Amino acid sequence: MARRIDKELEEFRRIMEVPSTFEEGFRWSSLLGAIFVALLMVPGAIYMGLLAGVGIGGAAQWVTVILFIEVARRAHKHLSKSEIFVLFFMAGSMMGGLGLGVNGGATSGLLWNQFFIQSDAAAANGIADQIPMWVSPPLTSQSYADRSFFTADWIPALIMVVLGTSISQISNMVLGYGLFRVASDVEKLPFPMAPIGAQGIMAMAEDIEAKNAKSAEDSWRWRVFAIGGAMGLAFGAVYLLLPVLSGALTGTAIQIFPIPFSDFTPKTGRYLPAFPTGISWDLGNFITGMVLPFYGMVGSFIGLLITAIANPLLYHFNILNNWKTGDDTIATIFKNNIDFYFSFQIGIALAIAVVGIWQVASSMVQNRREARANGQAHQSPWASAKAPEGRGDINWWLIILCYFVVTSIYIGTSVFLLYMYHDYHWNSGIQHVLYVLLFLGFFYTPLISYVTARLEGMVGQVVSVPMIREAALILSGYRGIACWFLPMPIANYGTMTVFYRQCELTGTKFTSIWKTQIILYPIILISTLFFMNFIWGLAPIPSFAYPYAQKMWELDAANRCIMYSATTGEYSMFEQAWNVWYFAAGGGFGLALFMTMATLGAPIMLTYGVVRGLGQTIPHTILFQFIGALIGHFYFKKRLKLKWRQYIPVVGAGFGCGMGLITTMGVGITFLSKSVIKMSF
């Protein structure tokens, strides 16, 4: 049977081709860019994440690139695509903050840890005094009153930050590269979504080449990027700059568009019981709807409509029985999770994982059949796999050695922490957790990473088995909550394969990325810790000064406590939320949906979109994304054809840059106003 071709994915595949030569992109001048981002962009990213739940990663990346391009031009030099990509990667890594919770109001890192131990959810579930010292100090620590990480009480947590981030960076880079070699060089997969991230780099490089050749009229990418940047500047001035400046100068934030969203649930609950309604006014959602695959956005909207019909019915049949008229979005989502969606979502996520694994397996079987039909069955794909000349590849034995060393360090550290937590007494609980660690590190992680690498290469999707870590820990029989805070050897390295494809598309040697990461790590770590400490010292986190964190973090804390309470040995929220029948219903519904869509020949992204819309994530962003997708598909795509797929990622990059620039300026003014020392005379 002939392989079915998804037309939409084919559009993405044809945007860019892999070049024939590769260049070194690392320069010691890049170190100046790292320091620039560390001093100016990292504090802005942390602040804006807490304030509005948005990041300025795009702005940091593009500002760094543009600044260095202009400096180089005045020195009568020009930057290659490889050098631009390295600068772009460097600034993005700074904004990622090694997973320390720098960008987008992420509920992770030290700021989150200090909040969680003091949260109402932790206190209500009786786990605040059980949180290990390598996560955060006991509540009796003076550091909470002083709002400072730089005290003796935080030393264990800081040591774990350094150890965890260093190991994770090594493993992500090396093992992600190894999976890319398998998916790209051995199995020749196309990675249809990778060109989206590489288009902005091409815009910068094309602008340089056009200006050097005095033919700027050919530089369409730069013009499109500038249009997106102007849109981001204009919208950001109203949406983010105004509340930031008004809050800094007057003490009262003026919001024309409510942050993070307008909540209509208390009013619409009379007509749509148990269904959260509202709108997120971030214009970035509109742009995102145009950038992402159209049928993915359509599927999300269909899933949202199904949820809008299902929730009132579930309420009518007394399944969503905790919801009360007048509840807002946050209360509605949390209560629905407890009543139904916690178990149902796990079932749907498991269905996605099963389908993803099935797609990978069926693809491998079909490739084998095609090889037999072509008389190539005797040839191993590994035998014909050859890395392109000059790309900067390394030997396979280094990749395998890195995997075993990293996994062993994770397991050894986790077991030692548990042993220490139990006053240096070995028990059966620790032994059972060791079995869990061995299973996750040496079986689950390589399996799911390979499946994801193939799925990213085929359709641009990530797969994961839901709650595998949680289920393994619960079934281990361990009693206590320390197991939830271990540096466990569970990861999905397959997601890094798209990054390496983007690196390849821009003609950048892989060694450039590895050199940059070695130089960047200490700068990222020091700047992130310093500015987190500084921002915590300005005001409690969360508080009225940070509306996004104040609104969303308590919900996340309550949801986490559902799982954490499962190993306390007492009746918990987990027992209330877990229902095997709802889990089975979610799994059955998900599998039936995928089978139906496949039978009808529906686009792949439509199916994934429907599943996404069915989730209990906050639905307020989907409407704007859907409107953007409609306008992009039925107006711009008809006029511009395939060029639309080339234009819109560049517009999105420019929009993110403009938004980040204008808000970073506001954050700088805020920091200046907070740093003023009032004299007594």
Task: Looking at this protein, list some descriptive labels.
681 residues; mainly alpha; 27 helices
Question: Total number of helical segments?
Answer: 27
Distance between the termini: 86 Å
Q: In terms of per-residue confidence, which ranges show pLDDT below 50 for 5 or more consecutive residues?
A: 214-218, 677-681
Strand order of the largest sheet: 1-2
* Global outline: globular
SSE string: HHHHHHHHHHHEHEHHHHHHHHHHHHHHH
Please tally the β strands and state the result.
2
Tell me the β content: under 5%
**Average predicted confidence as pLDDT:** 78
What structural category characterises the helix and strand content? mainly alpha
Supply Rg: 25 Å
Would you give an account of this structure?
By secondary structure, the protein is an all-alpha fold. The protein has one domain. Helix content is 67%, strand content 1%. It has 27 helices and two strands. The chain has helices at residues 7-13, 30-40, 42-52, 57-74, 81-96, 109-118, 120-124, 143-146, 155-186, 194-212, 220-250, 265-268, 284-291, 294-316, 329-373, 381-384, 396-421, 428-459, 468-475, 497-505, 510-538, 547-564, 573-577, 580-600, 604-614, 622-640, 643-674, and strands at residues 262-263, 278-279. The protein has a two-stranded antiparallel sheet. The relative contact order is 0.19.
